[in-house]
């Protein structure tokens, strides 16, 4: 090692020791970039967020990217958000920063962001998978991939055995079946139970408020809506004041640790996003995600995703005659709304009378009590329920 390099290494080591004596933290600080353009609250709010993060977290060193008045932080000049992103990517690629927080960053198709909120009922942290971007063009497939991303985020940020819940939205039932099939094939994950009396892995609004699962799975649009509500429900919506932002982009094409905030994000949320990205860098999130994806593929992920296209789209178009009507006094749950009529027709084909309906937990097939066992068998055999 040349004398200049040796001197620089020694200087860095002594600086780290001095910082450690002051802060009580002796590890290398995580250098987290923050772009300063396009906030609805101005660049001053972003600089304030950097100050909050530096004050609260001794293991983080904010690095600013963009134009702002002179301040105490390392700053890389850039005009406008596009140039900020160019500088950000250079700093990430050459290792000058460990991760970055920005907004309006264009992730490739197949990459979506995993955020973290603080739930209002009990102040519990909960991961929302996902909040922006698109994991897959097929919605149900996207939600399965979102699950893997959420699990990876949880593990990388300190939750060794995260629990998973699926928000009870369109597609939730086939997504649950797909994930249980993945588990049956050997993939290690753990469903939680709804706090409601009837339990189950499908999460209601109550579970959202209480933060019942470590990882709440949804499509990106729903996750984005939830993120905005959780972060700004006390402010009227114009200022996001609580939480950790929309999170890092995860997917096969994700190559950099880039976390997202919105134009409405205020300093507390931006500081939280800086904390989250430092944790993701420390936990080597991208590597953890790749391992989860590889393990899921070993357990048949690709084949399971192939089978998630709605049956209704591929079903025969011939009309099925209804059997003689009966009183329908039993419900069969767990069928996706897109498949509900096709499932009913499958029972009609077997001469079992059935009606379609909507229960409090989603779509249902209604059958006579004496037909319940036979109807359940037909629907299981046809792949409509687990």
From TrEMBL:
Transmembrane ranges, per UniProt, are none
UniProt GO molecular function? oxidoreductase activity
Assigned keywords, A-Z: Oxidoreductase
Q: Which domain of life is it from?
A: Bacteria
Query: Does Oxidoreductase count among this protein's keywords?
Result: yes
Name the gene behind this protein: grdD
Q: Know the name of this protein?
A: Glycine/sarcosine/betaine reductase complex component C subunit alpha
Pfam families in alphabetical order: FA_synthesis (PF02504)
Does the keyword Oxidoreductase belong to this entry?
yes
Among InterPro entries, the record links this protein to: FA_synthesis, Gly_reductase_pC_asu
Q: Which organism is it from?
A: Endozoicomonas gorgoniicola
- Give the EC number(s) under which this enzyme is classified: 1.21.4.-
Q: Which SUPFAM superfamilies match?
A: Isocitrate/Isopropylmalate dehydrogenase-like
């Amino acid at each position: 090692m040349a004398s200049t390099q040796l001197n620089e290494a020694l200087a860095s080591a002594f600086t780290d020791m001095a910082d450690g004596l002051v802060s009580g933290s002796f590890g290398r600080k995580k250098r987290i970039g923050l772009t300063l353009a396009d906030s609805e609250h101005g660049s001053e709010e972003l600089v304030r967020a950097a100050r909050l993060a530096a004050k609260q977290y001794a293991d983080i060193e904010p690095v600013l990217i963009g134009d702002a008045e002179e301040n105490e932080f390392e700053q890389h000049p850039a005009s406008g958000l596009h140039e900020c992103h160019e500088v950000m990517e250079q700093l990430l690629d050459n290792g000058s920063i460990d991760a970055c927080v920005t907004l309006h960053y264009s992730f490739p198709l197949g990459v979506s962001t995993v955020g973290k909120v603080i739930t209002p009922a009990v102040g519990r942290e909960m991961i929302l998978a996902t909040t922006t971007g698109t994991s897959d063009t097929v919605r149900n497939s996207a939600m399965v991939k979102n699950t893997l991303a959420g699990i990876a985020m949880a593990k990388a940020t300190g939750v060794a055995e995260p629990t998973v819940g699926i928000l009870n939205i369109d597609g939730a039932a086939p997504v649950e079946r797909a994930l249980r099939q993945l588990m049956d094939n050997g993939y290690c994950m753990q469903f939680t139970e709804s706090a409601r009396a009837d339990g189950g892995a499908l999460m209601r609004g109550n579970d959202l408020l209480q933060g019942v699962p470590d990882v709440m799975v949804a499509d990106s649009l729903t996750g984005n809506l939830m993120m905005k509500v959780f972060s700004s429900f006390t402010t009227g919506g114009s200022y996001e004041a609580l939480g950790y932002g929309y999170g890092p982009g995860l997917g096969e094409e994700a190559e950099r640790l880039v976390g997202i905030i919105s134009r409405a994000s205020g300093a507390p949320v931006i500081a939280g996003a800086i904390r989250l990205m430092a944790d993701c860098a420390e936990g080597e999130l991208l590597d953890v995600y790749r391992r989860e994806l590889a393990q899921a593929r070993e357990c048949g992920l690709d084949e399971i995703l192939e089978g998630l296209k709605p049956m209704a789209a591929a079903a025969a178009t011939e009309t099925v005659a209804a059997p003689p009507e009966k009183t329908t006094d039993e419900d069969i749950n767990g069928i996706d709304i897109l498949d509900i009529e096709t499932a009913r027709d499958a029972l009609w084909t077997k001469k079992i009378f059935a009606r379609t309906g909507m229960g409090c937990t989603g779509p249902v097939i209604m059958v006579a009590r004496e037909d319940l066992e036979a109807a359940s068998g037909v629907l299981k055999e046809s792949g409509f329920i687990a």
